[in-house]
Every structure is written in C-alpha cells, then in structure tokens.
Write a structure and sequence with these properties.
Blueprint lengths: L11 E2 L1 E9 L2 E8 L4 E4 H7 L4 H9 L2 H5 L1 E7 L4 E8 L3 H6 L8 H26 L17 H37 L9 H21 L7 H12 L13 H16 L14
Parallel strand pairs: 1-5
Antiparallel strand pairs: 2-3, 3-4, 4-6, 5-6
Length: 277
C-alpha cells in the first residue's frame, strides 16, 4: 500500500557520495547516486527559499519531467540512517522556475527573481537557436512567416537529441570508471576542512536548526538559515566549506555550545558516524 510520504514509484537509490554545499547563503545536501548523477535534498532546497517540502513534493510528483528525477536515498543524519527525497541536479533549474517567489524568504526573494528571469531568457535563447530564430526577443522577428521553420527545426532537433543521448551513454560508462579517482583528488584543498568534516558540521548545524525550529515555531526567519548565518558570521565566512582546517574544532565546539544553551542538553552526535561519506 502506498502512502503520500513514500510512494512506490519513487525509486530508492544508493548514495555513493554525499556533500553539503552552500546554496543561497544556506546549505543543501548533495549526493551522487549509483547512476553517477548528482541529486539535491528536497527538504534543504525548500528550506533555502522558505517553502514547505510537502507541497513542493506534490508539485514535483505532478510534473512528469521533475518526477523522473525524484529519488529517495538513505543517508546518515547523525541520528541514524534516514531516507530523504532528492531531486536530480539537472532538473533543479526547472523546479526553480516554477517556484512562487512571493512565498520565498525575503532575504532570498530578489536573488531568486533575478535567477528565474535569467533561466527563462536562457530557455528561450536555446529554443531560438534550435529553430533559427533571433535569440534576444520576438520583436526581432520581422516576418511572421519565419515561424514556419519551427516545425522542421524541431524534427531535426529530435533526431540529433536521440543520437546525442546514445553517445552520452557510451561516454557516461567510460566516465564512471575514472570518476572515483578524479573525485578523490578534487576537494583536497590545502588548509580547508575536508569533505568528511563538512558533512559532520552540516549534521551538527541541522540538529541545531531542528531544535531551534521546535522552540521558535513562529519565528519570522527560517531557523536553519539563521543557524548557518550565525556560524558563518562567527567565523567570517561567505561559504562554510571555506572554514580553515585549524578552526574546525572551534566551529564544532561553537555549534555544540549553541545547542547546549538552546536546549540544556548535549548534542550527542559522534563524529565517527558521519565520516563515511
């Protein structure tokens, strides 16, 4: 029997890698699935723009293109392994275009509106390139008969796309063989915290944000975003992943202390449990 929270048509995927990333000054969890594709946590991308994950999941499932990129993955939250919903990275712009900016958090609304306008303009430009029309504006089309070329261009595009997908699948298989070694070399930036440490810090701050949300249900600001902002302000960071390695123990202690002051309890999440990224 299916439930709204976990429908059978949403596949369960193994997360080969996971890494929290900065997004709109907040943080979202990214994973790489067994198919080699990257996915973003739906709850996090909704939190970034202050939208309810439940309503956005309904919207994603109601869109056949977005639904194809929706998966579940079991990830370690620090409180044990928990299943979450993730959306394929390539479909994130499509989801973003459909977001109602009037419901977005005030601090991100302007940036979100500009990004949506840019994405819409880029989509039209791609359509114009594919059909041989001017890319800037329909005002540049002097004769409506120029629109007659659209159908033939779209048929050609369909044939080329089929060939491209076949070629990409062959390239993807070759890429998977090299990916593990390349990814191991990436991110080894001298002086910055490691991917494992990023993951642990993300887990701690999410727990802090959860406790804050429970105690401040009527707060005007997103509690998770507020926790990330406090952490970044304390260490003068624009992105938390740029935290110097030498500051990592201090940052962990800072979050634990903030959690303790808020709840009166210790934040009992062992670091070893989050190192398996």
């Amino acid at each position: 029997m299916s439930t709204p929270e976990q429908p059978p048509e949403t596949p369960l995927m193994e997360a080969r890698e996971r890494l929290p990333i900065t997004l709109f000054d907040s943080v979202a969890l990214a994973i790489r699935g067994g198919d080699g594709l990257i996915y973003l946590a739906v709850s996090d991308i909704c939190s970034v723009v202050n939208l309810a994950p439940s309503s956005q999941l309904r919207r994603i499932r109601g869109n056949e293109d977005l639904a194809d990129g929706l998966v579940r993955a079991a990830v370690d939250t620090g409180y044990g392994v928990k299943e979450q919903y993730f959306l394929q990275l390539e479909l994130y712009p499509l989801w973003l275009i459909g977001v109602n900016t009037r419901k977005a958090a005030p601090q991100t609304r302007g940036r979100l509106q500009h990004l949506k306008r840019y994405l819409i303009a880029e989509v039209y430009a791609a359509f114009a390139r594919a059909t041989g029309l001017p890319e800037t504006s329909s005002r540049e089309i002097e004769d409506l008969r120029d629109l007659d070329q659209i159908e033939g261009s779209l048929n050609d595009l369909d044939a080329r796309q089929r060939q491209l997908e076949e070629s990409q699948e062959r390239a993807r298989r070759a890429w998977r063989d090299l990916d593990a070694r390349v990814r191991a070399l990436e991110g080894q930036r001298e002086g910055a915290i490691t991917e494992a440490q990023r993951g642990y810090l993300y887990t701690l701050v999410q727990a802090w944000g959860q406790a804050r949300a429970a105690r401040e249900p009527n707060a005007s600001r997103n509690p998770y975003a507020a926790c990330w902002a406090t952490l970044k302000a304390r260490f003068r960071l624009s992105r938390y992943e740029d935290l110097p390695l030498r500051e990592y123990p201090t940052a962990v202690a800072f979050v634990r202390d903030a959690y303790r002051q808020l709840t009166g309890s210790e934040l009992d999440i062992p670091e070893q449990g989050t190192l398996d990224l």
